[in-house]
């Protein structure tokens, strides 16, 4: 992806200019580019003094009634919305919510006229085409009037004309994966108001289409660049966007849906998609208009429930449509063949293992586990394991489908045979009962991990450290092991702890060496009370480990008057 050609200050200063007047004009152009409120050369206007993003934040916090409703939530019909389309009285709707943008007009980096294009209408399509990544709900929070309770009639040609006028010669941002190596270093809160309108120049968006499909009926996506009205696939809304090099298929579930997503390749133009959440399964056949490169990247934004599939195009061009999407009754519920390709030692007898599929990519929900068994075995025996993020691996291949942390037992009927790699295994996904809504409203967490019971907490810690919906103030992770050599991922965990002060990790050994300086003993009332005495009281407690460990942990928490605990089983 190439940024649009635009003269910057160096180019202007280095250009050969014979006329002083030309030089002055070019200097003015430099000032226009550099004076953008967001530092974004795409902006078409110079904001007046006192109208920066920070000035808008101050206005929002000043107590001014920006919505004009005195704090009341008022449902708005489409007919009423259409009456408010002037500079002096401007409303617009985005994703079913109506905002009074009258006060915000002069703060809009793209200019008043640009924002007024959506005034008096449902501007969702215009917003998505220009900057769908902007957190408009936070930016316009104080401007919200209420829900849009009926659709307004919008001219099809008018919408097409509006979208055709949107400049898309900008560079697309790489997908923001929920679990990435950025969590090894401290980051500022990307949801802070100062960052709400960052990176507008970093994304190129293609024309948007939405499609409805019904069982046993195929609906082709528009290939004539006409817009469909807002529709839904069952309860899983679909959208798409593109650049000349990439196409992104987007599915909207619900907030905190914690979905399971699986994509299987049949060919470079034929894919099967399965999305599971809330005891529901949505299965689709996806046929891109042209060939794409597999595998793609899957990004899940937990707070919004948005799922994005990022494909690189085999041939770089702008497509007329995204292809065809239709319902599919196909769903692989049983075991699927995978290959264990590599392993990395993370404890005395515990290994991080790389699991690979040649035809599938999978995103697992937080807190879920899979069942694994050998492909060729006389014993039909499966064990549960929790997928973990690659962040906790040092040397395993990045192109792996997913990773499991497995403890190897010399006499184990399954794990004793996992030493000769590569090895074919069968893996089955299980239903995830862990509800992310259980974490909302809690800011202090306690995690009790016995041995490999650490696994489900790894991805969960990463999620809580970057959670935007509710501030995480403290996480206390207590790892119980026999000896120091049994501690799992100690160096990696300490790295993350060093980068994030809100995370505290305590290692407790039942059989420590004489020079062990940290906590000793098994989990009990006195030791846990001592560890927690100098910590904030955890309002949410989680437990994972062997059955005996979990029973003792639950009993201990009850003695400490903790009752809001969750056990991973």
From TrEMBL:
Keywords recorded for this protein, A-Z: Heme, Iron, Membrane, Metal-binding, Oxidoreductase, Transmembrane, Transmembrane helix
Domain Cytochrome b5 heme-binding, residue spans: 79-149
Organism the protein comes from: Xenopsylla cheopis (Oriental rat flea)
Transmembrane segments: 445-465
Pfam families, alphabetized: Cyt-b5 (PF00173), FAD_binding_6 (PF00970), NAD_binding_1 (PF00175)
Family: Belongs to the flavoprotein pyridine nucleotide cytochrome reductase family.
SUPFAM superfamilies per the UniProt record, alphabetical: Cytochrome b5-like heme/steroid binding domain (SSF55856), Ferredoxin reductase-like, C-terminal NADP-linked domain (SSF52343), HSP20-like chaperones (SSF49764), Riboflavin synthase domain-like (SSF63380)
GO BP annotation list: superoxide metabolic process
InterPro entries: Cbr1-like_FAD-bd_dom, Cyt_B5-like_heme/steroid-bd, Cyt_B5-like_heme/steroid_sf, Cyt_B5_heme-BS, Cytochrome_b5/Flavoprotein_Rdt, FNR_nucleotide-bd, HSP20-like_chaperone, OxRdtase_FAD/NAD-bd
GO molecular function: cytochrome-b5 reductase activity, acting on NAD(P)H; heme binding; metal ion binding
Region span, Disordered: 183-204
PANTHER family: CYTOCHROME B5 REDUCTASE 4, CYTOCHROME B5 REDUCTASE 4 FAMILY MEMBER
Descriptive protein name: Putative flavohemoprotein b5+b5r
Compositionally biased intervals (Basic and acidic residues): 187-204
Gene3D superfamilies assigned: 2.60.40.790, Cytochrome b5-like heme/steroid binding domain, Nucleotide-binding domain of ferredoxin-NADP reductase (FNR) module, Translation factors
GO cellular component: endoplasmic reticulum
